[in-house]
Design a protein that fits this description.
alpha/beta, Rossmann fold, 2 domains, five-stranded parallel β-sheet, four-stranded parallel β-sheet
Length: about 350
């Protein structure tokens, strides 16, 4: 494991232990001014990459009493107002797109809560009268999923915008611990599902398919982790949307795709019965154009537990894909080079 230069696997292994401290911090922050003057009618999460995906988790898990939207880019939505709760997500506190969107949200008069280690985002939000929910320092955003997701769920529950999440978090913790026990490097050979999945994917290019909001998000996170940790190409799509377009794209070039593409299907226990039927039928139509079709299934009780379980399995798999190819999973040099080329952000 010497190729893991910054201890990334250790950071991944510590994910379950992020949940309880993040819950405690989110339950202690002062929210008395949020929604005190104008009732909240919608929630908007602003964020990019490994920070912004926390908002997508809230959307995919569902059970929210008001619409929740995730926005990525530089401009805040035009519809923001004093009745919009804005959750600004940047682990580092220096993500320029999130800073730009947050400035727009403040100008629109929306109450803003930042989930961050601080930085420029924390300063911006606090100076504008908003709330900072501090994250523990020393992590990479993609390894801080628990520290970013849990505050959103707890805050929305505290504000009466979703039911209490105590049981959800206990179920998620139990499942993440179980998945870690299955996937940690000490587990040998085919007994380790992440290592075995990485072996199956090998040098092929994985196409990750998932069903509905939950499965689709798990597929997207799986793809992102292969990009960042494995430094390799990967692609994703979501049922049932892909059955209205992408499924037609496998009508040509099968002699090429069956040599280079592996289809990985992520499954969960909350698929609509009709959706599950679609997935089976469409797979039968296209499976001959892939090297292989591999299916992985979520474990755990509850939507949050199953979603985080699939995401965690994907993270471990991406790390083994890296290590199997003598690639260091931690550094993300391409992103660092891009940011350096862009130069400092000026509001």
């Amino acid at each position: 494991m010497s190729i893991d230069s910054i201890g990334f696997l250790d950071a991944i292994a510590a994910l379950p232990e992020q949940l309880a401290p993040a819950e405690a911090v989110a339950r202690e922050v002062d929210l008395k001014e949020i929604g005190s003057n104008t009732p909240i009618t919608n929630v908007v999460v602003l964020g990019m990459g490994g920070s912004g995906i926390a908002g997508d988790v809230v959307v995919a898990v569902g059970n929210n009493s008001v619409p929740v939207t995730v926005v990525q880019g530089y401009r805040a939505p035009d519809y923001l107002s004093s009745s919009s709760l804005v959750l600004a997500m940047s682990y580092s506190g220096h993500t320029e797109e999130t800073l730009s969107m947050t400035q727009g949200a403040i100008a629109a008069g929306a109450p803003v809560i930042a989930v961050s280690c601080g930085g420029a985002l924390g300063e911006l939000v606090v100076n504008a009268g908003g709330v900072l929910v501090p994250c523990p320092p020393g992590l990479m955003p993609r390894a801080a999923l628990g520290s970013l997701v849990v505050p959103l769920l707890v805050i929305l529950a505290r504000l009466g915008l979703r039911p209490d999440v105590t049981t959800d978090l206990k179920q998620a913790y139990a499942q993440l611990c179980q998945r870690r026990d299955q996937c940690a490097p000490a587990i040998a050979g085919s007994k380790n599902p992440a290592r075995e999945l990485a072996r199956l994917i090998g040098r092929t290019i994985p196409l990750i398919y998932g069903g509905g909001n939950l499965g689709g998000l798990a597929a997207r996170r799986f793809k992102n982790d292969i990009n960042e940790n494995g430094k390799a190409p990967a692609f994703w799509a979501r049922y049932p949307e892909l059955n209205h377009n992408e499924i037609c794209g496998w009508g040509q070039h099968g002699d090429v795709t069956r040599q280079i593409l592996s289809l990985v299907q992520v499954r969960h226990g909350y698929e609509h019965p009709r959706l599950a039927e679609q997935m089976a039928l469409s797979t039968a139509l296209v499976e001959e154009v892939f090297v292989q079709v591999v299916e992985v299934s979520a474990q755990g009780e509850g939507r949050l537990a199953q979603l985080l379980d699939l995401m965690y399995l994907g993270t471990w798999t991406s790390c083994y894909l890296a290590l199997d190819n003598d690639v260091d999973p931690g550094p993300i040099d391409a992103i660092a080079q891009l940011k350096e080329s862009l130069g400092p952000f000026v509001a």
